[in-house]
Amino acid sequence: MQTKKHKTALILVDIQNDFCPGGSLAVPEGDAIVSIANALQAKFDLVIATQDWHPENHMSFASTHAGHQVGDIIDADGIQQVLWPSHCIQGTQGAKFHPQLDVSRIHKIIHKGTDRYIDSYSAFFDNAHLRSTGLADYLREQGVKEIYLLGLATDYCVKYSCLDAIHLGFQVNLIRDACRGIELQSGDIANALAELQVAGVKIITSKEVVANSACHE
Length: 217
Ligand code: VGL
Ligand code: ZN
Description:
Blueprint: E1 7-13, H1 34-40, E2 46-52, E3 73-76, E4 79-82, E5 108-112, H2 135-141, E6 144-152, H3 154-167, E7 171-180, H4 188-199, E8 202-204, H5 206-216
Parallel strand pairs: 1-2, 1-6, 2-5, 6-7, 7-8
Antiparallel strand pairs: 3-4
Helix pairs in contact: 3-4
The structure holds pyrazine-2-carboxylic acid (VGL) and zinc ion.
C-alpha cells in the first residue's frame, strides 16, 4: 500500500454571488468554475472556502468615499486601494456562495475583509499584513503542506492568497482553468499568472489534478 507523503488542501476562493454574473462585482464567467470546483473537492484531504465578508461602508467601496468613483485608486495608510462597487456585505444574498457550489465537503470557512478600515484580498492576511485570518495555523494543525487554489478573482484574491501561501512556506498550486479574473486593465490576469509562477507557484489545470489523483488511488 502506498502511503501519502502529506495532506493536501483545496482552497475555494470567494465563489460568491456578487462575483458571478448578475452580482455587483461580477467577474466575467465567474460561474463557469463552479462545476470544476465541485468535481475536484473529493480529490483532497481537506476543503476550505473563503468568503469576502465586508461590513456596510467598507473602505474598499467607492460609495464610502465622497467624490470617488468605482475604479479610482486611493492611498490608504500607504497602501494603494482600488475602489469597488459595494459587494459581499455580511449576511446578504450577494455574499452567499454560488447556489450550485457543493458546500457539503467544506471543512472550514474563512471570512476576510471583515474590518471596516482595511481590505483583505488574501485568505491569510489583511492587505497590511497586520492580522492573520487563522488559515495558516489551521492548515499546519491539520498537517497540510501543499495547497491547491481555485476561484475568484485570479488577479486579486487568488493572486494575493497564493503569494502569502508561498511566503508562509506552503507548496502552492493554482488551478488555472478553475479561476477567472476581473481584468481591470487588460493583461492583469496574464501578469498575475506570470508573477505567481516566478514566485514559485505551480500553475496547473484541473485535468492534471484528476490525472494525478488517479495515480494515487
Ligand atoms: C475581490 C475585489 C474586491 C476578490 C474581493 O475576491 O478577488 N476582488 N474584493
Ligand atoms: Zn472585497
